[in-house]
Design goal:
The protein is mainly alpha-helical. It has one domain. It contains 16 helices and no strands. It starts with a helix and ends with a helix.
Amino acid sequence: MALYQKIAYNVLISLGARVVGTALALFTIGLTTRYLGKEGFGEYSIALAFLYIFNSLADLGFYNILVREISKPGTDEREIVSNVFTLRTLSLFLILGLGVIAGWFFPYSIEVKKSFFLIGASYFFLSLSQVLMAVFQKHLRTDKAALAEIGGRTAQLALTLFFVFFDFGFFSIVWALTLSSFLIFLLNLLFVRKYVKFGFGFNLNLYGKILKESFPLAVSGVFILIYFKLDAVLLSLFKPPADVGLYGTAYKILENLIFIPAMFVGVVMPLLSRFAAAEIDNFKKIFQKSFDILILGGIPVVAGGLFLSERIINLIAGRDFLEAAGALNFLLFAVFFIFLGTLFGNSIIALSKQKTLIWIYAAAAVFNVGANLIFIPKYSYLAAAAVTALTEFLASFLMFILIFKFLRWWPSFLIFGKAVFSGAIMAVFVYFSLSLSLPAIIAGGGIVYFAVLYLIGGISKEDLKLILEIRSKKQELRITN
């Protein structure tokens, strides 16, 4: 199968699996919010947000460096994966452990503080799974990781149903998260050994090289986590857990949506890294196509979501959480900017210009913290959501300017205009279809969007033909891999 077909196959399979995984996750969130209520879900969200900060610190930029390095021709994949896996394990033990201890000095309830131990373990397993994801991306077999995620999501839903039915309380929900995270890691570990049989590596020279390359990304990661998760922590210090629960509900939807660009860009990242060094014209082609696809996927999320946010919140979390719809409206714009920012950031890393990302993320972090400190005390979770959207716009815009500076090249915005037009037509359809059921509106809106897009040349017959060819050549892909 041709390279582009392999990429598209992985994207479609991963996207399909993500749709299933997202449905499972949202069902689990719905059970959790209804069982714990605003206060209880707020405490659950506080624990997740607090330890996410330390989990992000422990990343140290290893994942992106690993994807880039193992994608280069002639590299010792086993050696690199073994040593990065070891470094990640050590950093997680140290920094997540520090986070669990630090959490006991914050003014949270005893339930939140006790839950830090289990949530820390959950982040530990999920972070190790991310290292393995780099191998699947290099070999264009992200469908394996997608299968592992579905297995974990299914287990979490089943455990949550069981614990809620027998009313085992707050900590049982946390146990469901931790056990499912371990299952995801275990499945990824079993799948990845088909492509590279790694172990723990202790090459100190390689450690030094990896740490030197990852340091700019580690610093950037500090600023990213400041503006990506510190808002929930600030909210927890200024407002009651119920407000954090409302914000956390809307934010959970964002987190499930932004996996789409992360998954897609993860598939093309090895190609961006390969072409960035010597074949810059091919790099531009990959970037342009990826840019177009992410715009096509992001526009309908915003255009349709703005009219359906209240119904989405009601379906997922119940009527007690309807106030979260306002926050979700702001976060939908954040989702769109994250779609593009994911591509921009990874492209800068592929060009080995990751040091420049420090200043962008630093500017975004300063803006985010300053704006949240000013507006959260008065406007609560609505302020946190609005500031998140503005921060993502700022970061994406600055990264786009940097790419132009490096390449002296602007990507075409032709697809953007066509997507906006199609999205506007779709929004009109959604507005006049609000009396229908939510699945009918979403399905109808999608049909209208892509039909208009096809009629005005936003997608072509060749694109549709490629999708059909991918479906007919799955077996060939298995053989060639």
